[in-house]
Specification:
single chain, Lysozyme, 6 helices, alpha+beta
């Protein structure tokens, strides 16, 4: 027969004694721990759970993974909203347009890279901005960005985007 007595969350310092239900428990540590007390066939058994430090590391990793999965969902929905625009300009290449867009900007029309690439399909401004005679601000417009990308695609194919090679 196992009787669960309780879960303690205690702060201990070296050689502290913790008292619960009349039992003295001596712990030699300097951290927070979960102490699990159980009574098994009339004998009290105490188990030491994870430390506060380990818990923080585990929780941070769980948050990081959750944020990563949410970003993935956000990227997909962020790109899908531009499908009509890709279909308008790229026709049967619309799926590749969306794939490039997902890799380049994640569907963010205001995306800017450290190499001066702007917008949904990360048009490289120093070259293509001058070629098209447009400003950086105009490259943030989704339709303008996709229209410029189509001209670039017609000249170079998907090879113009490193992420599509």
């Amino acid at each position: 027969m196992i009787l669960y007595i309780g879960l303690l969350f205690v702060r201990t310092t070296k050689s502290d004694e913790v008292k619960d239900s009349g039992h003295n428990i001596k712990i030699n540590t300097d951290s927070y721990f979960d102490l699990i007390m159980m009574e098994i066939d009339g004998k009290v058994k105490i188990e030491l759970g994870e430390s506060n430090h380990d818990r923080k590391i585990r929780e941070a990793e769980e948050k990081r993974l959750e944020a990563r999965s949410q970003r993935s969902v956000a990227y997909n929905s962020g790109v899908e909203q531009w499908r009509p625009l890709c279909e308008k300009y790229f026709g049967n290449q619309a799926n590749n347009c969306l794939k490039a867009m997902k890799r380049e900007s994640g569907g963010n029309p205001r995306a800017v890279s450290h190499t001066q690439d702007y917008g949904l399909l990360q048009i490289h401004y120093p070259i293509w901005g001058k070629f098209f005679g447009i400003s950086k601000e105009q490259l943030f417009d989704p339709e303008t960005n996709v229209k410029c990308a189509k001209v670039i695609y017609d000249r170079s194919g998907w090879y113009a985007w490193v992420t599509m090679r």
